[in-house]
Design brief:
Layout (H helix, E strand, L loop, with lengths): L3 E6 L2 E6 L10 H16 L5 E5 L4 E3 L4 H6 L8 H11 L4 E5 L2 E3 L1 H4 L6 E5 L3 E3 L13 H9 L1 H10 L3 E2 H6 L5 E3 L4 H13 L3 H11 L3 H19 L2 H11 L2
Helix pairs in contact: 1-3, 3-10, 5-6, 5-10
């Protein structure tokens, strides 16, 4: 069964991360599939919005560490690199439904979404410094812009987990709902958006975005530093400890 599944319904492309045995950890093939499904949907006139979700108990635990370390050359052709930059070019709205763990990319991805809904089981974490790394996906720019420097520093420097109520208070998510209502809530909002004049929606999304050139430059700088940190002795020690758990 595919680890990334899609279903197109009522003008919405529903993308499901489906690797429960690995807590939906993303490997390189999954990054490639995510990017391809977004690009295809963006070019399909029958699709007017995206909804990304995980399982009922996990959005994604972040990168598949073992797979990532085997393919750690973060050049422009790296699947994770290409997926992250495809988010900058996405014309159509992206909605997320988050349940359970949303670690690393599971949280930074949300900064590129237009609407985010989480349930009461959701746990967010930006553990980059815990692994002797730095943020990615433009988080070092987007998060301070969204929640202010001090709160962003708290999340990025301490790397501690936080719940959905905290995420809502920080405006990282739109709302926190009962787990039984999560998908229906997020899907209903996606359908509402998909039913509106698409070019107007796309133009409005584009106007609300941060400066694209600035964000592109920040993401490139993050990935350059990320690649450097990944080869450092302190990162190797942290990953060795992580993998031996």
């Amino acid at each position: 069964m595919s680890t990334i599944q899609i279903k197109d319904e009522q003008g919405v492309r529903i993308i499901t991360i489906n690797r429960p045995e690995k807590r939906n950890a993303l490997d390189l093939e999954m990054y490639t599939a995510l990017r391809e499904y977004l690009i295809q949907g963006d070019a399909d006139n029958a699709i007017n919005a995206f909804l990304i979700k995980g399982q009922d108990d996990c959005f994604t635990a972040g990168n598949d560490v073992a797979d990532f370390l085997k393919n750690s050359d973060l050049g422009p052709e790296h699947p994770a690199f290409k997926f992250l930059f495809s988010l900058l070019d996405l014309k159509k709205p992206l909605i997320a439904a988050v349940s359970g763990a949303a670690v690393g990319i599971g949280t930074t991805l949300l900064l590129h979404c237009d609407l985010v809904y989480a349930d009461t089981t959701a746990k967010f974490q930006l553990p980059f410094t815990n692994l002797a790394l730095v943020p990615e996906a433009g988080a070092s720019l987007l998060l301070p812009h969204l929640i202010g420097h001090q709160k962003a520093a708290e999340l990025l420097l301490l790397g501690e987990s936080f719940n959905a109520q905290t995420a809502k208070s920080l405006h990282i998510i739109n709302d926190c709902v009962d787990p039984k209502l999560l998908f229906d809530t997020a899907f209903a909002q996606a359908v509402k958006i998909a039913a509106k004049p698409p070019l107007s929606i796309q133009a409005t999304k584009a106007l609300m975005r941060p400066d694209k050139a600035l964000l592109h430059a920040k993401m490139t700088a993050e990935l350059t530093e990320f690649a450097t940190r990944l080869q450092s002795d302190e990162a190797k020690a942290q990953f060795k400890a992580f993998l031996s758990r």
